């Protein structure tokens, strides 16, 4: 799997050179999310399921593949994509009921990124709207309180946040913490680390 | 547009447009800091009087302290840097020494005569004060009447902010730290300013809840420190709103910032390009 990612991306050298997110760990992890696909063609020498008897995938097989692989296969018209479980009707109904309480992290830690990536491929325009309304509600309910909430890593409200939301929350919290630290004071002048360093004896 | 926004921040000190383009603004501001240090070093070499030299060595210390941002992605400025900028505000001092004019790039200050008030930058005032060469006159707005008035205004009008000096948090902190004997009723003044700050920060937070699917927000009368505290959060959430609000723009944004282009690529050319690989 890892190998095919490597080769796959070196092939489109031009694309990767203009790809600023190429080394972004969050972007890579977001593309690891599984997408259910159906194979149009049979593929030899591929072992998707480790328990499978033969090294081939038959035509019409339903398999879950990580997004980066599914996307490449889809662009070669080898598979058809269907909507991942984290965007199915059940989840949507839960989100409509109360977005702030839905545990998005366990469904998909990169809910928004993944949604943006998958939406154009499955051709579902409602995903975009759903992402926006979800973010709006959750922003209002949880995130705007990020500056004042007392930080408790195990608190329940934080456990349901996706990675994107956590980074927002963290940004707010750390800037507030820096401000409070400044306000309280402490050493006004610190010695630059360069000045204190002792020269190593050269041998 | 950026320069206009920036000019607002600098000159007017009253309006700050929090926009998704803050990255560019921040680069402007870094330039300013670079210029600062340039100015200071040139001062250092120019004025060779012993008296002033010691002042500058103090100043350059505070520069080295904040030379680099610890993490540019989290917050564009550290509170220390905001304080550094606030030190350029002018305050009135009453020196008790005689001293020749000081010529800085930002202007000439002095000459100084005992008991004759003079206007100097805050950092200079603090440095002189530390050496017992002057007393600092607290600014006009730091009177109990004015602060009580502002605090009442903040509490009554939940929607808008009162006009306060752009650097009121930093200036008051510096004066409380270094010139506490020059401020009448310091305990009252200090608690009033802390109340004002808390009320305003709470108000900023309630204001944040009003954001929904907008790419630019205008909040008047925010002060430097308040803007800086919410900046990382606001910028990121506005970006997220912007991205989800408009999928077309999102795609444009992606190509503009050279992000993942694969999704948008039309299928046909892609397949054509992939042809040899497919055969293999």
Distinctive features:
heterodimer; A: 203 residues; mainly alpha; Ribosomal Protein L9, domain 1; Methane Monooxygenase Hydroxylase, Chain G, domain 1; 2 domains; 3-stranded antiparallel sheet; two-stranded antiparallel sheet; 11 helices; 5 strands; 50% helix; B: 280 residues; two-stranded antiparallel ribbon; 7 strands; 57% helix; 11% strand; elongated; disordered N terminus; disordered C terminus; GINS_Psf2 (chain B); PSF2_N (chain B)
CATH topology of the largest domain in chain A: Methane Monooxygenase Hydroxylase, Chain G, domain 1
CATH topology assignment of one domain in chain B: Methane Monooxygenase Hydroxylase, Chain G, domain 1
Largest interface comes to: A-B, 49 and 54 residues
CA gyration radius of chain B, whole angstroms: 24 Å
Radius of gyration of chain A over all CA atoms, rounded: 23 Å
Number of structural domains of chain A: 2
Number of helices of chain B: 11
Oligomeric form: heterodimer
The average pLDDT of chain B is: 70
Tell me the strand percentage band of chain B. 5-15%
Low-pLDDT segments of chain B = 1-72, 252-280
DSSP helical segment count of chain A: 11
CATH top-level class of the largest domain in chain A: Mainly Alpha
Mean pLDDT over all positions of chain A: 77
Helix content of chain B: 55-70%
Pfam families (chain A): PSF3_N, Sld5
Keywords (chain A): DNA replication, Nucleus
Subcellular location (chain A): Nucleus
Family (chain A): Belongs to the GINS3/PSF3 family.
